[in-house]
């Protein structure tokens, strides 16, 4: 038998164990029924179940579900389009999601699989800071597939995003004030300013 604080009580007859549990106002719980003799523990079973449920709920919440996003490319993709798609892939990986990259071949492009392979290798190299190749490029009919996994887990990515957001709020700079224009100085009037311009002097 194990005591309420984890201390070893030793081998105790069942009647004595039940009496000890009653005296301590605790439950006698069998924790290892396969052991010979079986192992029991004195504990507050209701409290134990509640704490276990709380811990499980917390783990589930922190775990976060990793999604698999998909990005489709063509072997002869334009440079601007490539940069845009790469930006999306980086965003997904930063968010802790996997990304399945699909290269779609059409017509005679199917006879040039090296185009797709080179493109996937280039993309993997470009985003290696945020993700790693989880599934290497492989041909699947008309398509070539590769899966990138995030270097950060979903929960870590959320925590980092939350931290950077709160950090950014603290140090948010106020917009700089525009310098105020100096007021125009009034020209002093001399005796000539009050005269009629049509009068000959």
Automatic annotation (TrEMBL):
- Disordered: annotated segments: 52-71, 148-201
PROSITE patterns noted in UniProt: IF3
UniProt-listed SUPFAM superfamilies: Translation initiation factor IF3, C-terminal domain, Translation initiation factor IF3, N-terminal domain
Q: List this protein's GO terms for biological process.
A: ribosome disassembly
Molecular-function GO term, any one: ribosome binding
Keywords, alphabetical: Cytoplasm, Initiation factor, Protein biosynthesis
Domain (Translation initiation factor 3 C-terminal) spans 67-150
This protein's GO CC annotations: cytosol; membrane
Q: Name one Pfam family in it.
A: IF3_C
Its annotated compartments are:
Cytoplasm
Compositional bias ranges of the Basic and acidic residues kind: 166-183
Question: According to the lineage, what is the superkingdom?
Answer: Bacteria
Q: Which InterPro entries match?
A: T_IF-3_C_sf, T_IF-3_N_sf, Translation_initiation_fac3_CS, Translation_initiation_fac_3, Translation_initiation_fac_3_C, Translation_initiation_fac_3_N
* Annotated Translation initiation factor 3 N-terminal domain residues: 2-58
* Protein family per UniProt: Belongs to the IF-3 family.
Subunit info here reads: Monomer.
* NCBIfam families in the record: infC
Q: What does this protein do?
A: IF-3 binds to the 30S ribosomal subunit and shifts the equilibrium between 70S ribosomes and their 50S and 30S subunits in favor of the free subunits, thus enhancing the availability of 30S subunits on which protein synthesis initiation begins.
Q: What is this protein called?
A: Translation initiation factor IF-3
- Species annotation: Propioniferax innocua
């Amino acid at each position: 038998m194990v005591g309420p604080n984890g201390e070893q009580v030793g081998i105790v007859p069942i009647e004595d164990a039940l009496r000890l549990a009653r005296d301590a106002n605790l439950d006698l719980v069998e924790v290892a029924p396969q052991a010979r003799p079986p192992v029991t523990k004195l504990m507050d079973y209701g409290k134990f179940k509640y704490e276990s449920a709380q811990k499980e709920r917390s783990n589930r919440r922190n775990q976060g579900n990793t999604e698999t996003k998909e990005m489709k490319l063509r072997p002869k993709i334009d440079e601007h389009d490539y940069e845009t798609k790469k930006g999306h892939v980086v965003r997904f990986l930063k968010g802790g999601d996997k990304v399945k990259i699909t290269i779609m071949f059409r017509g005679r492009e199917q006879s040039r699989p090296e185009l797709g392979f080179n493109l996937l290798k280039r993309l993997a190299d470009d985003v290696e800071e945020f993700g790693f190749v989880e599934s290497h490029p492989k041909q699947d009919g008309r398509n070539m597939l590769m899966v990138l996994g995030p270097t950060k887990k979903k929960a870590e990515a959320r925590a980092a995003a939350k931290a950077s957001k709160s950090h950014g709020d603290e140090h948010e700079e106020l917009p700089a004030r525009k310098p105020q224009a100096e007021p125009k100085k009034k020209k002093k009037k001399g005796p000539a300013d009050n005269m009629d311009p049509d009068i000959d002097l």
